[in-house]
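Lecture 7 notes. Example A: sequence first, then its structure tokens.
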Amino acid sequence: MTALRREPVGTQRASAARQRVLDAAERRAIEVGMAKLRVGHVAAAAGVSRQTVYNEFGDKFGLAEAVAVRVADRLVDLIEGELARHPSLSEAVASGMALALRVAAEQPLVELTLARKDNDDMIALLTTDAAAVIETVNTRLVEIGGKLWPDIAHTDHVLIADLATRMTISHLVCMTERPEQAARKLALWVKALLAARGRIPSRPSNPCTPTAGALRGSPASITTTDRRARASMSAPFSPAAPPPTTTTS
């Protein structure tokens, strides 16, 4: 498996070229599927040479992997905002997972991939070759969890992030129940873990965001959250808006 290359340091031109290649690759993959993606077509659409693409991503798989990681990274941006709405860690991870499942299933590239499970290379990036996606999502979730719930041990944040990521991918690839039902299972596991540690963590509610109870009691708020999230994920070439800041004590 080709390792995901990092952006060149201190070279804005190379970084801009990388983003153009990723934009072009994602556009083309949405049109024809990842299996029919051709490096030459992507290079031409991005205005770079084939060799530039190979130098930056290694091969076609490396390019596809980078696209998958970028899609996952945008999804985590949305999840971060959802996590910040809930003082309770167990409620937060459940709400974040439910949102992730709903939004990811409607992201154009993911939707196409799931519809062509037997004929699209992208599915491997959610199953047998998902290491880069899992690592990226886990790293960010651990960082977010540490900021929002600093009293929880780092090792527990690692456990929670890894389970949440793997459960989300599993349910996304083979959806057998509603997102909220799957997410409740994760919440139960998190509660059990925290109880075993002798803690039920929560943090003061941010006055700038709805509390968990207010969110549950306001269907309009939930609809607005999903609508904004879906709009962000269905615009694959626009840079994601920065996640909302939160105040913790």
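Example B, a different protein, same format:
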Amino acid sequence: MISEDVKSSIDMIRESARGIVPHGDLSRIRKLRFNDPGFDREVWAQMCRMGWPAMRLPEAKGGVGLGMLPYCALAEELGRGLLPEPLVPAVLVAALLDGEALAAHLGGESLVLPAWQDSRDAIAPEEPLDLDGEKVSATKRYVALASGADAFLVIGTDGAVLVPAAAEGVTIAAEMAQDGTTLAGSRSTRRKAPSSGPIRAPPSPKPRWQPAPTCWA
């Protein structure tokens, strides 16, 4: 049974979502199609102010702590209006960030997008991170809306590192998809990382994710 409090939260979330994506009005969406990056940062900032990227995070981590049901209701409303802003990948990334990187991501100051796909048919990361001391090298495929990101969470089978999009050695090759959105390949060549460096996740059959450190490509 769904409690009355949860039902009330879901109703309010649906109503808020309709303010961003009015039913039947796709004029904004059409203007963004076949344009790079394919979404509006002002709209994204508004979504962050409403706490949507933090919806599934526990309050102890700076999130809203509403859980899966309200999030699904939000995603349903936004999907009905074909919202192009990257809510789903941003929510997924938030679970792996911590500290200042998480605060900036949730606040809309810095948009972090996941870069995890190693091959065309992959449904999960297939390769461990190529880390050499304080250096990282990776090539990831099909990163949606990549040219609008401030940083990438580069994910391997053994952990993740946070790579600024403007870092030296990072290249983004975007291609237009048939639906008017962009997909990009992201490549990070080896460069020295900050002194904090990346942290390797301990070997495990099922990767135990750690908060992602910042790492220069």
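Note on Example B: The mean pLDDT is 84. The two ends are 48 Å apart (CA to CA).
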